[in-house]
Amino acid sequence: MENKPMDKYFDNYQQKVLLETEAKRILLSKGIPTTKFQEASNIEQALQAADDIGYPVVLKSLSRQVIHKTDVGGVKLNLQTPQQVEQAFQQIMSRIKPIDPEVKVVVQEMIPPGVEIIIGTTTDPQFGPVIMLGTGGIFTELLDDIVFGLIPISEKDGWRMMRSLRGYPLLMGYRGQPKGDLDSLVEILIKVSELVWEKREILEIDLNPVIVGELGSVVVDARFVLE
Predict the structure, then answer these.
(1) Which end of the chain, N or C, is less packed with Cβ atoms under 10 Å?
(2) Phi, psi of 169, deg, nearest 5
(3) What is the pLDDT of residues 85-142, one digit of tens each?
(4) Residue of 103 and 16 predicted with greater confidence
(5) What torsion do the CA atoms of 185, 191, 197, 203 make, to the nearest 10 degrees?
(6) Residue 208 CB: number of other CB atoms within 10 A?
(7) Nearest CA to 40 among 11, 82, 99?
(8) Model pTM?
(9) Domain-by-domain residue ranges, the chain?
(10) Whose CA is closest to 94, among 74, 79, 108?
(11) What CATH number does the domain located at 37-109 have?
């Protein structure tokens, strides 16, 4: 029974690279927490979405033509007022519409600070599907901190991967910071592993970042590549 909602999403997607909102709907169907989000095609919809979600919010471009949103000014963070949402919407549209006339935006909640983690999957020609866990944010290049596991992984594998990170002390509450909810991070790892094992048409998943906070872990951005 668990797979039926997820099957509906895969049946409807004809594109190889999914939009962020499409990827997040698949994650939610698997019980993987994501930010609250709504799509918007105009300023009125963006303002209504911000009211529904609650300030502060984030606006991001939603386009099949522009994958790396940040590089082209397609991400506006920590918007506190309707005026800021309206300005951000106009700025994103002015930058992206010349590239993609069908661009929309996604309005999502601004997640409180936590430890940024990267979770990804790919398919190795020799070993098959593998899952990756890494320290994200400002520590990505500094620590070069990535570990891999063969899919499907067990709960024991998930904990082993997490404890193998050089950034593990950050998750444990480094220098007085609150300890992250490690159980919730391992649960996301296991569910992503299950998703790829069940749906072999998934070539790649990129969840970057996953914010690990004191009360849970949340996927902030998501990218799927299908076969």
Answers:
(1) N
(2) -55, -30
(3) 999 999 999 999 999 999 999 999 999 999 999 999 999 999 999 999 999 876 666 6
(4) 103
(5) -60
(6) 19
(7) 82
(8) 0.91
(9) 3-33+112-226, 37-109
(10) 74
(11) 3.30.1490.20
**Hey, what CATH topology would domain 3-33+112-226 get?**
D-amino Acid Aminotransferase; Chain A, domain 1 (3.30.470)
Domains 3-33+112-226 and 37-109 share a fold: no
Two tokens, residue 10: 């895969």
Closest CA to 60 of 80, 44, 79, 32: 79
Structure token pair of residue 133:
């866990």
Q: Rounding to the nearest 10 degrees, give the CA dihedral for residues 22, 118, 128, 149.
A: -140
pLDDT at 165 over 80: yes
* Token pair 């994650």 in the structure block, residue: 27
Query: What are the structure tokens assigned to 90, written together?
Result: 């106009």
- Whose structure tokens read 């910071």? 177
Which DSSP string do the residues of the chain spell out, in sequence order?
-THHHHHHHHHH---SB--HHHHHHHHHHTT--B--EEEESSHHHHHHHHHHH-SSEEEEEE-SS-S-TGGGT-EEEEE-SHHHHHHHHHHHHHHHTTT-TT-EEEEEE-PPP-EEEEEEEEEETTTEEEEEEEE-GGGHHHHT-EEEEESSPPHHHHHHHHHHSTTHHHHTTGGGPPPP-HHHHHHHHHHHHHHHHH-TTEEEEEEEEEEEETTEEEE--EEEEE-
- CB half-sphere exposure, 89, CA atoms < 13 A: 24
- Please, what's the b/e burial string for 67-79 (b: 16 or more CB within 10 A of its CB; e: otherwise)? eebeeeebbbeeb
